[in-house]
Amino acid sequence: MEKIISPLAVKLTLPRKWRIHNGFPVSLVEPYRTGDIQITPDTAKVLREADDIQNSEEYDVDEFMGSTKKERRILHLVKWLDYPDRRDWTNEPFDNFSEGGLEKLKEFHRRNPESPRDYRLAKD
User: Fold this and answer.
1) Which domains are delineated in the chain?
2) How far, in Å, CA of 116 to CA of 65, rounded?
3) Distance from C-alpha of 43 to C-alpha of 26, rounded to nearest angstrom
């Protein structure tokens, strides 16, 4: 959950490839409750729990293996830490990397200056 828009709507962080609107009514997101009493959820608690869920699905970059330009986007071929098999490598856009991954991406481009690079990644 990215943001609580109102008591009745939330904004979710969704994968870009889904290409759907990210605003949803709370009734589709909150757990179903039986009974007549509707308790307003504690928004701070909900956001903390959502942050924990989001952080638990992060993977660490072991090494960047290449980069390609696909349409107007740059995709980086990533070998993930603890996932050495080639079938586990994925092509990821710049937005999917945290600070540690960005440092490894900068190092990859220092070693491979001719590889396609995202415009947000400053040249060293």
Assistant:
1) 3-56 (no CATH), 61-111 (2.40.50.40)
2) 12
3) 11
Residue type, position 114, single letter: E
Contact between 111 and 124 (Cβ < 8 Å)? no
How confident is the model over 47-97, as pLDDT tens digits?
A: 777 665 555 567 889 999 999 999 889 999 999 998 899 999 999 999 888
Structure tokens at 87: 């079938």
User: Could you give the CA distance from residue 46 to residue 124 in angstroms, rounded to a whole number?
Assistant: 41
Report CA torsion sign: 72, 124, 76, 113: positive
Give the residue carrying structure tokens 């070998």. Answer: 79
Alpha helices in the chain (DSSP H): 26-29, 43-56, 99-111
Angle at 99 between CA 83 and CA 79, to 5 degrees: 20
Q: Which long-range contacts (CB under 8 A, 24 or more apart) does 54-58 make?
A: 54/13, 58/98
